């Protein structure tokens, strides 16, 4: 391996950014003859475990799909209790996140949330904005198509103001306007709960991401399950359109 390749691969097989669809809370509760909401409460504990694990490993970013723009279709009682859970989680956890140097950001259309929740989100983001540790991104009332449409809107405004020639537009012009901004794209996408689909999560940003699907229900997604996902990721050869031989040569083998 060349010195350059070696330097570039201090942690050659650890993802910089992990994105997760946390599915299976409802089924976890039903299996235990508990109300569905108990599954979401247990899901918060799994979130805490995952944040801790990523911070300890020095992973740069963790993005969690907490509430999709389609989740408003759930029974009103479940939606309202989920909102309550987000509020409680923010009230209880932000100080701890800040102490642990975590930078928290929420992506999605937050105007749809009640004013109390919006205020808590704004204040949590402000409080942790300067932190240098794990970037924790919570996708709430988020949709991948919405994200792309919003970026397109902002690009159109740039064109209208005369700042950009529409003929010159490339994918790179859109990227800074997407919700994840300057964070690296996810290297590893995990979906728990057995379904094998992307469900309008980070559609643009998952273009070259490695996928890991597991039947484990989100509240049961513990350290061991995460290690399994990381081990699977470590076996993947990421080619970004190149041949396997080219990739091996670039890595100095
Ligand atoms: C999907 O399980 C889960 C959700 C829609 C909510 C996710 C929320 C949490 C894990 C808790 C809060 C998170 C934060 C960041 C504070 P499901 O209800 O669709 O499960 P099912 O497929 O078994 O019905």
Summary tags:
253 residues; alpha/beta; disordered N terminus; binds farnesyl diphosphate
How many DSSP-defined strands?
6
Strand order of the largest sheet: 3-4-2-1-5-6
Gap from first CA to last CA: 6 Å
What is the typical, i.e. mean, pLDDT?
Answer: 92
The bound ligands are: farnesyl diphosphate
Low-confidence stretches: 1-10
Order of helices and strands: HEHHEHEHEHHEEHH
What is the rounded Rg? Answer: 19 Å
Largest sheet: 6 strands, parallel
How much of the polypeptide forms β-strand, as a percent range? 5-15%
Summary of the model, kept short:
By secondary structure, the protein is of the alpha/beta class. The chain has nine helices and six strands; from the N terminus they run H-E-H-H-E-H-E-H-E-H-H-E-E-H-H.
What this model shows, in words?
The protein is α/β, with parallel strands linked by helices and 253 residues long. Helices cover 45% and strands 13% of the residues. The chain has helices at residues 3-8, 25-31, 36-57, 76-99, 115-128, 144-160, 171-174, 223-234, 244-250; strands at residues 17-21, 61-68, 103-107, 135-142, 188-191, 210-213. α2 crosses α3 (36-57), α3 (36-57) packs parallel to α4 (76-99) and α4 (76-99) packs parallel to α5 (115-128). The protein is globular and about 55 Å long. The termini are close together. The model is unreliable at 1-10 (pLDDT under 50). The protein binds farnesyl diphosphate. Residues 22-27, 40, 43-44, 47, 64, 66, 71, 85-86, 89, 138, 193, 218 line the site of farnesyl diphosphate.
């Amino acid at each position: 391996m060349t010195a350059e390749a070696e330097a570039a691969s201090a942690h050659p097989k650890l993802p910089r950014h992990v994105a997760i669809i946390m599915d299976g809370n409802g089924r976890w509760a039903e299996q235990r003859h508990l109300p569905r909401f108990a599954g979401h409460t247990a899901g918060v504990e799994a979130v805490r475990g995952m944040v801790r694990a990523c911070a300890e490993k020095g992973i740069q970013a963790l993005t969690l799909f907490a509430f999709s723009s389609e989740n408003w279709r759930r029974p009103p009682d479940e939606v309202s209790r989920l909102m309550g859970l987000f509020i409680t989680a923010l009230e209880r956890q932000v100080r701890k996140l800040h102490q642990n140097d975590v930078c928290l950001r929420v992506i999605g259309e937050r105007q749809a949330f009640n004013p109390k929740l919006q205020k808590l989100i704004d204040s949590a983001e402000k409080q942790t904005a300067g932190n240098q540790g794990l970037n924790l991104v919570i996708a709430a009332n988020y949709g991948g198509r919405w994200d792309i449409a919003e970026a397109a809107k902002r690009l159109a405004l740039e064109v209208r103001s005369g700042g950009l020639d529409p003929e010159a537009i490339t994918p790179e012009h859109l990227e800074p306007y997407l919700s994840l901004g300057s964070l690296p794209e996810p290297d590893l996408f995990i979906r728990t709960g057995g379904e094998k689909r992307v469900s309008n999560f980070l559609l643009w940003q998952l273009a070259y991401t490695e996928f890991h699907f597991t039947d484990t229900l989100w509240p049961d997604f513990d350290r061991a399950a995460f290690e399994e996902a990381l081990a699977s990721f470590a076996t993947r050869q990421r080619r970004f359109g190149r041949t396997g031989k080219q990739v091996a040569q670039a890595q100095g083998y």
